[in-house]
Amino acid sequence: MNQAQAEPVPRPAAAGAAAPQGVELRHLRYFVAVADAGTFTHAAERLFIAQPTLSQQIRRLEQIVGTPLLRRRRDGVRLTAAGTVLLEAARDVLSAAGHAVSQTRQAAGLGRPRLRFVIPADLPDSLAVQTTSRLRSAAEAAEAAEVAITWLETALDGEFSPIRQRRADAGLGWLTASPDALPAPLEAMSLGEFEPDVWIPSSHPAARSGVIGLDELAGLDVIHGPRRASPATYDRWLEVLRAVDPRFGFADPPFRHSLPMALAFAATAGRPAAVLTGPTAIAGPPPGVIRLLRPTDTGDMARVSIAGHPLTATAALVWNGDLPRPLQQILFDTADGVTPPSASSPPAAARPGQQYAAELMSGGTPARAGCWN
Question: What is the pTM of this model?
């Protein structure tokens, strides 16, 4: 155990004592570094400062706020309840400060414009590849100075919190409601509607017809998730299924990134079980469109559709409305490049967004068959 971790936690200042000076950005930066690293030793190495100095600054921060923020243990540090609250706020403050400095430099003609773009891990490969390629092309073709794109792989909830809280500028994610329902100052452009793949035991009556009712699905043990990977679709689809059965709940997959493993577990379960993927297929594809590559080993499971397509999500570009206009224009150009032209006429059986999704599937970049939420 290092010396910094063994030091006693400072006590809150006594009532009537002189008020300490205010919190500085360096205090917050050091606190976030310690919370992320888990130990003072590793945090000091990442910050390139001496460990005693780091420990002293954290003690000073605890004195300023008047309560312990970290619990020192043999295996590292743990956040207190107050520390957990401050950590989230500290990230927001540091992100906002960095964003303000970046915008100020851009306004003064200093440095390259920067676009922090979120790509969640649960997106179909075809959708992610096509969109990121278009974004890079649009950034390179921009009339303004060359834009530096920073790629962030993180989950997005229904309110697109990393973007709303300015930890990112824009992202590609799933809308489960109208774009008008997004909290200010977010804006969005839809790219197409997707739905999950559903796998059920081959012995299930619905396997013969290839279509299962929502009530039938709710009666099975459904493997889906985990929630942290894609909170928006997880919560929305859970709400839809609970409207049929209030006691319904998802079971987490045993291995998140392996569809064959999930299918194997479902096929050998003690009671009938189904596997529900993330949004990977075009919602209600027209005849002739191949949805996804079939996994090599599906056991005794069959892929079916849900009657009426009640579980859907809309792929959308979402950004913060206060982005500089040149950066917003890059996003507009990106959306134009991956959205079907308005003059085109998709098949009568297709809904808006299906032609685009069909082009993705036939464009030589297959969507991954094991895309989970």
Answer: 0.63
